[in-house]
Fold RNA polymerase subunit sigma-24.
Amino acid sequence: MPDEALVQAFRQSGPRREGAFEVLVTRHAPRIHRLAASMVGPSAADDVVQDVFIAVHGGLNTFRAEAAFSTWLHRIALNACMRALKARQNVPLESVAEPAAPHNLALSGENTDLRERLARAMHTLPPDQREALALRELSGLDYAEIADITGAELGTVKSRINRARAALRALLTKTGVTP
C-alpha cells in the first residue's frame, strides 16, 4: 500500500487506523533512525525517532499532502534532531558514540572504530551540510526531495553535499581512514 493510502486509512476511524500507522512506522523508521543517528548520535537516535513518530501520529489528521508523506516526515525528523541538538549543546562528542553489539569481535571493533570516526567527522560539518549529506546518503533521498525538505535551491543542495563529502574525505584521511 502506498503511503498516501495509509495516511487515508489512518484518517478513518476503525481497526485499520492504527494498523496503517504501524505500517508507516515499520516502513520509515529505519531511515529516520539512520538520519537521527547521523545528526544527534546513536545514543540519542531512539529518543528522536520516538519523538518524530509521536509528532507524526498527532499530525497525520492535519497533514495537507502538499508534499509527499516522506518529505513531510523527514522535515519533522530534521526538526526533532535540531531540538535534540539544542537540548544537549554542551554534551561532549565523546559521550555520543555508542558501540555496536559485537557479532565477530575483531570485525565489530573495526566497524565500531570506523563508525565513531565517521560520527565525529560528521559532527564537525556545518549543520546544513550534515543535514543534506545525511538525507542523501542515509535516507537515500534524491536532490530534489532534499531541496523540498530543507527549503534550499537544488544547486545549493548539490553544493552542500559536495562540500560535505570533500570535508569528510579530508577529515577521515587525516585520521588514517582511506575513503
